[in-house]
Amino acid sequence: MSAEVSKQFDHKHFLAHLSSRPGVYRMLNEAGDVIYVGKARNLKNRVGSYFRATGLTSKTLAMVNKIQDIEITVTNSETEALLLEQTLIKSHRPTYNIQMRDDKSYPYILLTSKDDYPRLGFYRGSRKRTGRFFGPYPSANATRETLQVLQKVFKVRQCQDSYFNNRSRPCLQYQIDRCTAPCVEAISKEDYAKDVHYSTLFLQGKSNALIKELTSNMEAAAERQDFERAAVVRDQIMGLRRMQEDQIVANQGDDADVVAAEILQSYVCVHVIYVRAGRIIGSKNFYPRFKLAEDVGELLSAFLSQSYLGDDKAASIPQEIIVPEVLEDAEGLQDALTYVAGRKVKLSMRVRGHRAKWLQLAVTNARESLHAHVSNKQNIYKRFQKLQDSLNLESMPNRIECFDISHTSGEGTVGSCVVFDESGAVKSDYRRFNIKGITGGDDYAAMEQVLDRRFTRLAKGEAKIPDILLIDGGKGQLTQAKKIMEKFQLPEIQLLGIAKGISRRAGQETLFLAKGERFKEIVIPTESGALHLLQQVRDEAHRFAITGHRARRAKARRESPLEEIAGLGPKRRRELLRYFGGQQEINKASESEIAKVTGISKKLAEDIYAHLHNG
Hints:
CATH class of the largest domain: Alpha Beta
Number of strands: 19
Distance between the termini: 65 Å
Helix content: 40-55%
Strand content: 15-25%
Shape: globular
Structural class: alpha+beta
Number of helices: 20
CATH architecture of the largest domain: 2-Layer Sandwich
Radius of gyration: 30 Å
C-alpha cells in the first residue's frame, strides 16, 4: 500500500485509507529512496502523528518535508512489526534511522571438541565451527583477559594446532607454569580433561560450584596422601578466590546488559555494561548517528532493536537488559527479544539494589564519555580551521584522505587509505589495497597503483572527492599522486606530502605542498593544531597499512605455494605431499618425478615445476 508520488504528499487522503493494524511504514523521498523506516502498534495513529500541526521537532519537520511517498506493510503483531523493521533498516540503511557504526561481530572464547587435548582460544566470526563457544565478550581485551586468567589457573593450552602438533619438547609456557605440556603428553588425558571441565564451569559463571568441586577434590587427594595433587588444586582455588576479590560486584544474579544513553547537541552516546554470572566483565561506548534523536527513551529503543534483533544476534542477548527509562514500546520489544533469543528475556526499567548501582554506573559513564567525545570532535574541527589557515586555503577542508604503503623487504605490500572529516575518523570509508605486479620494495609504483585504483572507483561514483590528498612520503611519492590527479582531471584536490625528518621524530616532519608544477616545502609550528591533525591522520594511515600488511604476510605463511596452481586441487596436493613427504622435497623434484604422482598428468607436472621455479 503506498501513496501516489507528487510534489506535495497528500497525507490527508493517505491517512483516510490507512489501516489501524500493527505494521511497518517506509518513508520515501523524491528520488524514491527510503529515508526512514518505522514500526507501529497502530499504523494510522503513528503515521498520522508526523503530520500534526504542532509539537514536531525541527529534526522531524526536516524529514517530513522530504516525504513524497509512504509504503506500508501490515503485520499480525507488534513483535512481527519490530522484527520486520530491523530487517528493512539493515537492507535500506535509511538516513534518519539510527546508524550503528560498529558492526564488527563480538568476540568469543572457543573450546575445540575434536582434539584429545582441547584448545581454548580467542574467536571472532561465524559460529559454524565445530566446538563450544563462550561469550560473547564486550571487547577483545575482555576476552584475552579471561583467557589469561584461565591460563594461570587451569593451564589449558591456547596454542594453535599447527604449533601444538609439531612440538618435540615443552615450550616456554610450560616453563613459566602456564601450561601442562599436553603436546608432549606431560599430563594424562584424564587430568587434562578435568582442567578443561573446570575451565568450562568458570566460563559458564559457575564459580561457586567450581570452588566447591575443587575443594572436594583437594580433600580427596589429601586423604589419598597425594599431597602434590592436593597442592595443585589448592593453588587453583586460591587463584579463583583472588580473582573474585578483584570484582567490583560479587556474584549476584545471572547475565545482564546494563544500557544507558545520553544526548548532547547533535551527538549521542550509548554505554553498555556487560554483566556475566553477576560479575562486570567489561563495558563499551557506542556513538551512533541518529538524526531524529530528541528523547533518550526513543534512542534506547532504537539502539536495542538494532543491536539485539536479528538472525545472527540470538547468542548475544543476555537473560536481562536493564535500562534507566520506561520505554514506550517495552512490551513489544521484550516479546521480540524473547522470540529472537528463543528463551525468556527480561527488559527491566525500574531496578533496585546492586542492579541500581550498575545502572547508575552506566548513566555516569554515558554522560562523561559523551562530553569527552564532543570535546574531541570540537577539537578536531578547530584543527581543520587551523589547517586552512596554515595552507592558505580559500575554504575549510571537509575531507582528508591519507595514503601509506607497508611491506617487509618488498614482501606482502599493502596500501592503505584512511579518511578524516571535521568530526574525526570516517572508518566506514577506510580502504586497503593488496599490491600486485610490481617490483618488491618499489614504493613509488605501489603508491601509483593504490591511487589509480582508488580514483578509478571515485570516477565511477563509488567514493567522495577529498579536499586534501595527504601522502605519507616526500616529493617522489607526491609525483606519483600528481600524475594520477592529472589522469583523472582532478586539479582541485590539494596535494600534501608529509615526510619523516632525519631523526624520524614527531614534530620534525618535512611538509611539501603542491603549487602548480612545483612542490613547495612549508613549515607549520610544532605546537600548531594543524600539524597535530596531519600527524594524527598520517599515524592512522600507517597503523592501518601495517595491520593489513601483517595479516597478508601471516596468510601467505599459512598458505602453500601449491594452492596457487590452477588445476591442482586439495586431493592432488595431498597426493603430492604424501609422495614426496613435504614442500622442500617437491621443490627439488624434476618434472618427470612430479608426473609419477597419482593424478598428476605430464602437462600438470610441467605447470607445477614452472610455478615452483618461476618458469
